[in-house]
Structures are given as C-alpha cells and as structure tokens.
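User: What would this chain look like folded?
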Amino acid sequence: MSEKPLYYKRYTGNINYSSEDKCYYGQLQNINGLVDYCGEMLEELKTDFKVAVDDYIILKEAHQLQ
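Assistant: Here's the prediction, encoded as structure tokens.
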C-alpha cells in the first residue's frame, strides 16, 4: 500500500504500510543519503516525517552539504 507523498519545507517523502509490522514507514526522496521515518498511525508518521526533515536540514547545515 502506497499513499500520496508528504511535503514539508520543499522536501518530499513517501508513505508505505507494512502489514507484517502493522506500521507506516517512508523515506525522504531526492536527497544525498538515507533518512527514514515511521509511525504506527498515519498522523504519527506525518509528525515523524517533519522531525526527520528538520533534523536533516540541521545536519546538512552543520556539515555544509548540498
């Protein structure tokens, strides 16, 4: 199952659901590296996505990444 993408601060993330693990998960798209997020409910996933984006921005600025 794949949902519509998430958007926050010009970053995009995907949404998938694992019936085996009974949770939602996703990854930031079009970045250098791997940043993932998850949640048992869709709202929890969306919150974790925003935290992941904010953390990625801080990391990117700290290391002067493109």
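The radius of gyration is 12 Å. If you want, I can go into more detail on any region.
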